[in-house]
Design a protein that fits this description.
With about 100 residues, the protein is mainly alpha-helical. About 40% of the residues lie in helices and about 5% in strands. Strands 1-2 form a two-stranded antiparallel sheet. Helix 1 packs across helix 2 and helix 3 packs across helix 4.
């Protein structure tokens, strides 16, 4: 849905083997036409909507830095858990979601 999130790479790196691999792989140069860069930062696109990505990203942060999202709607909970599984988010496997 064209929303943008700025997150601390280190938190994603430690919470998910998916993101760890994504950040360790060599990044294409800024001259490549396949790369989107915004304000000097690489942009990654995801199939999840902003509501799901917001909830997912909040679980990557220490609880003193980001408020945990209120997961009240069952359909939303399922989508967030599916996204956590898809992106190998440790919080989802450890029952912290």
């Amino acid at each position: 849905d064209s929303s943008s999130f700025r997150v601390v790479k280190l938190f994603l790196f430690f919470e998910s083997p998916f993101f760890e691999a994504l950040f360790v792989l060599p990044q294409p140069s800024g001259d490549s036409t396949d790369v989107e860069i915004e304000d000097g930062l690489f942009v990654f696109s995801f199939s999840e909507d902003s509501k799901e990505l917001d909830a997912l990203s909040r679980y990557c942060y220490p609880c003193i830095l980001a408020e945990r999202p209120a997961l009240k709607d069952f359909g939303h909970i399922v989508k967030v858990l599916d996204a956590a599984k898809k992106h190998s988010l440790d919080a989802g496997r450890e029952g912290r979601l």
